[in-house]
């Protein structure tokens, strides 16, 4: 829709070194239609197998819908992205340019009640399958609402259902723990990697059991399943209301 070159945003100067990767049977399809000044689009993307460092992932399928997108604003956003100078720009500055353009030109799109849906997402991993469905919608957003997080969120509705292999989550926790405990190489008697891994696994298992007992998730046949819903400023996780901290009251304006 915007023709933004994702590689230039994520890795504009090649800081991320390429690894061995083989992609098999990539497929994609994009269909769009117009209703007066609004655009509706649906995109499907998938592949049979992605092999990275000799580890196979897939098949993968993704089905997205974008509805009620304000056409004139979307075209301005597209042109603004195309006008960004890429050659000779430092990576941090290039990323900031993309963010600035998105904030400046993307606001009118958000003011016209856009809706996005993840109709279907599935990815087979060595440890199991990740599935996700959900949708996000904005209703009645005005320019002034961008200055108030609470007002903005009260006009947003969203829901999602997620299923992910427990081993995949555990692997992410272990990797993060290794980063946290391996930063200071000069520390006296640093823990071994095995000790870090065992500590992370034990903490992860304990926390998952607590959340399962509280009803925030389910652990079924090696999968972790949960759902989330945000509506009218209220957050439900797996059907259970989450008590969010109250926003600090706005400071009264000074008298003229």
Give a verbal description of the structure.
By secondary structure, the chain is of the alpha+beta class. It is built from six helices and 13 strands. A hairpin with a 2-residue loop joins β2 and β3. α2 (71-82) runs antiparallel to α3 (91-110). The longest helix has 21 residues, at 193-213. The radius of gyration is 22 Å and the shape is globular. Residues 1-6, 8-13 and 248-256 have low confidence and may be disordered.
Pick out its properties.
256 residues, alpha+beta, ten-stranded antiparallel β-sheet, three-stranded antiparallel β-sheet, 13 strands, disordered N terminus, disordered C terminus
How do the strands and helices of this protein lay out in sequence?
Layout: H1 6-10, E1 21-24, E2 27-35, E3 38-47, E4 49-52, E5 55-57, E6 60-70, H2 71-82, H3 91-110, E7 115-125, E8 128-138, H4 149-154, E9 156-165, H5 166-181, H6 193-213, E10 218-220, E11 223-231, E12 234-237, E13 240-242
Antiparallel strand pairs: 1-4, 2-3, 3-6, 4-5, 6-7, 7-8, 8-9, 9-11, 10-11, 11-12, 12-13
Helix pairs in contact: 2-3, 5-6
Helix content: 25-40%
**What average pLDDT do the residues reach?**
86
Q: What is the H/E order?
A: HEEEEEEHHEEHEHHEEEE
Structural class: alpha+beta
In a few lines, what is going on in this structure?
It contains 6 helices and 13 strands. The protein is α+β, with helices and mostly antiparallel strands. The strands form 2 sheets. Strands 2, 3, 6, 7, 8, 9, 10, 11, 12 and 13 form a 10-stranded antiparallel β-sheet that branches. Strands 1-4-5 form a 3-stranded antiparallel β-sheet, with no helix packed on it.
